[in-house]
């Protein structure tokens, strides 16, 4: 009987060992699942933080670009006063050096994206020009004289042109 008792104890011991191993395996599986979920959670948080950072970088770059464009726009607008004076001086002073300086200055501004709005002898456009005076003329609503040039900067209106516009006046028959 001792032999059967020993066998029973051995079987029970093996069963207990197997139960313990299964319980440990189950605990390990649960721990692995918990750690996998935790890793996935950290990965998701990391990817969100990375996306937030990339969006911040992009937003900061856009703001920096806009700030530079605004500063350039304000500076070029101030330089237009000087260009107007060069244009007026050129009317009265016929000097090759003055002309060269003016052309050089215009080229510099052009390289920064400044473009003159050509309005002379064209129909009046209220988006690019402002009427200073109406003058009797042959055609209706045509720009006949530019008093101050208008300019675009990077496809945006920087300064509107000041112009004289023709007004057709019909003569009444007596």
Question: Keywords, please?
Answer:
single chain; about 170 residues; alpha+beta; Nucleotide Exchange Factor Grpe, Chain A, domain 2; three-stranded antiparallel beta sheet; three-stranded mixed beta sheet; 6 strands; about 20% strand; rod-shaped; cytoplasm
Mind explaining what this structure looks like?
The chain has 174 residues and is α+β, with helices and mostly antiparallel strands. The chain has a domain at 115-174: Nucleotide Exchange Factor Grpe, Chain A, domain 2. It has helices spanning 2-92, 96-111; strands spanning 114-117, 129-137, 143-148, 150-153, 156-159, 161-168. The strands form 2 sheets. Strands 1-4-5 form a 3-stranded antiparallel sheet. The longest helix is centred in the N-terminal third of the chain and has 91 residues, at 2-92. This is Protein GrpE. Its main location: cytoplasm. Belongs to the GrpE family. InterPro entries: GrpE, GrpE_CC, GrpE_head.
